From TrEMBL:
Source organism phylogeny: Bacteria, Bacillati, Actinomycetota, Actinomycetes, Pseudonocardiales
Name of the protein: SAM-dependent methyltransferase
Highest taxon of source: Bacteria
Any Pfam family the entry gives: Methyltransf_25
Domain Methyltransferase residue range list: 47-143
Signal peptide: none
Species of origin: Amycolatopsis roodepoortensis
Gene Ontology BP terms: methylation
Keyword terms: Methyltransferase, Transferase
GO molecular function, one term: methyltransferase activity
């Protein structure tokens, strides 16, 4: 794919995503802060990016950790094509088409860190528990899984307050008028330059239609049962979290 065309669509993707995560860049920065810290004594760390999409987080990781090897996993061929076309020339990033809902996805190790952002909520709880067990087995001692996502507190009044805080932050940031997810995909499907390369099915977005809406308490329980030693949020704004799980 043409690099400029891909870069334009990734920029548009990033703006679209900020409609749902007003502090997306800060969330990225915090995720990378954690990875940088747990990999501080590793000369060439291996970092996995689960549900990498068009490579927004992987690109930023490579910029901060230039000696890291990063492997991004996603099941969407169009988003992966954008990621490959916009991969910085000097970055050691591999992109792999993989369905995390299926077993046998993890063939790399030992792993120093794994990251994900707004992706693992699509996995059903029982499958998510398996992915967590896979990661706990592959991560070295002292390694971490760092997950940025929306988590919904078990306490209904707190859950409501967290949503209010998130929505008020979005109002102040002025992202409410940003392009919606469905509109972004519709625009991609209507672009003649993309339709020459991708099928209609590849330009509509892969979605399971399932969001597990797990609470931070449930996430912590699944991670501890999988074998992680310590689990806690390291950043939160409303119901937007960065959750760190350490081996």
């Amino acid at each position: 794919m043409d690099g400029k065309l891909a870069a334009d669509w990734v920029r548009r993707w990033d703006i679209q995503q900020e409609r749902y995560i007003a502090d997306r860049e800060e969330r990225f920065a915090v995720l990378i802060d954690v990875v940088e810290h747990v990999c501080r004594d590793v000369a060439e760390p291996l970092v996995l990016d689960l549900g990498c999409g068009p490579g927004s987080l992987a690109t930023r990781l490579a910029g901060r950790l230039p000696r890291a090897r990063i492997v991004g996993f996603d099941n969407d061929p169009f988003l992966l094509a954008l990621a490959r076309a916009t991969r910085p020339r000097e970055a050691n990033i591999d992109y792999v088409q993989t369905d995390l809902a299926e077993s046998g996805w993890l063939k790399w190790g030992p792993v120093d860190a794994a990251v994900s952002t707004t992706a693992l909520h699509w996995l059903r709880p029982e499958r998510l528990a398996e992915v967590y067990r896979d990661l706990a087995g592959a991560l070295r001692g002292g390694g971490a899984l760092v997950n940025g996502d929306h988590f919904y507190d078990e306490q209904p009044a707190i859950r409501e307050l967290a949503e209010v805080v998130k929505n008020r932050r979005a109002e102040r940031a002025g992202v409410g008028a940003n392009e919606e997810w469905k509109a972004w995909w519709a625009a991609a499907a209507a672009d003649p330059a993309l339709r020459e390369r991708f099928t209609a099915g590849e330009l509509r977005g892969i979605s399971t239609g399932y969001g597990n809406r797990l609470s931070p308490q449930e996430q912590t329980r699944l991670l501890r049962e999988a074998g992680f030693a310590e689990v806690a949020p390291v950043w939160q704004f409303g119901d937007d979290y960065v959750l760190a799980a350490l081996r």
